[in-house]
Specification:
This protein is mainly alpha-helical. The chain has 3 helices and no strands. The chain has one domain.
């Protein structure tokens, strides 16, 4: 795919827009908070894999970045 950066930027903008749309409802609904956390995790992984080029890295680093993102998102989700 030739325009991966452009597609990724569009996806990041869409995820940010969705987060902004759901944010006003997050104080009343726990599921909305979890959705916003999942959107943030997806944005983190998109930035890491495409812009930091983790997809070209050793498998250990792919696992570490993905696992770290999931653990942090899960910890925040449990606390919130």
């Amino acid at each position: 795919m030739k325009n991966t950066t452009g597609i990724t930027m569009a996806a990041l903008l869409l995820l940010t827009l969705l987060s902004a749309i759901f944010a006003p409802y997050s104080h009343t609904n726990v599921w909305i908070r979890q959705l916003i956390l999942l959107l943030a995790l997806n944005k983190f992984l998109l930035v890491a894999w495409v812009f930091m080029e983790i997809h070209k890295a050793h498998g250990f680093w792919k696992f570490c970045i993905t696992f770290l993102g999931i653990i942090i998102c899960g910890a925040i989700g449990i606390v919130v």
